[in-house]
Amino acid sequence: MLQIIFNEISAAELSHLSTLDQLRLLDEFKVDPDQLAAGNGSQFGTLERDGRTLYRYRAEDYRIYFAVESGRVIVHRILHKNTLEDFLFRSKLKGSEDEALSQSRHFWKLIEEGENARRVG
After folding, report:
1. Is residue 84 within 8 Å of residue 14, measured between CB atoms?
2. Which string of DSSP letters, residue by residue, matches 53-106?
3. What are the beta bridge partners of residue 68?
4. For the domain bounded by 3-120, which CATH number is listed?
5. Cβ distance 62 to 69 under 8 Å?
6. What pTM value is reported for the model?
7. Domain ranges in the chain?
8. H or E element, residue 36
9. What is the per-residue pLDDT across 65-121, written as a single tens digit (0 to 9) for each?
10. Residue 107 vs residues 6, 26, 68: alpha-carbon distances, Å
11. Distance (Å, rounded) from C-alpha 80 to C-alpha 89?
């Protein structure tokens, strides 16, 4: 298992969930480097752009977007699936969720906001 670090944005997104949803989400979110390397299962996805790799973890109705750096998981954003479906619909992007988001500069701007936010914990 890897150490998980939230930034101010992802911590705030997590804090907006009910306590029960927070506990469920954190209980489910276990990142094993071997699973990431194998692209194991539908819970993990990979988004790539400009040589950067971002991972997506599906947990019920939420998507956690994170990077792995120096043996740590850096959580950039936690988004509700309806937020993403609405985003994809408004952007008129085609293909799978991960493929479409990989091509969207607006999505990467959301991620960059998370990358540039101060890390907590």
Report:
1. no
2. EEEEEEETTEEEEEEEETTEEEEEEEEEHHHHHHHHHHHT--S-HHHHHHH-HH
3. 73
4. 3.30.2310.20
5. no
6. 0.76
7. 3-120
8. helix 33-38
9. 999 888 889 999 998 887 766 566 556 656 677 777 787 788 888 888 888 888 876
10. 18, 23, 19
11. 15
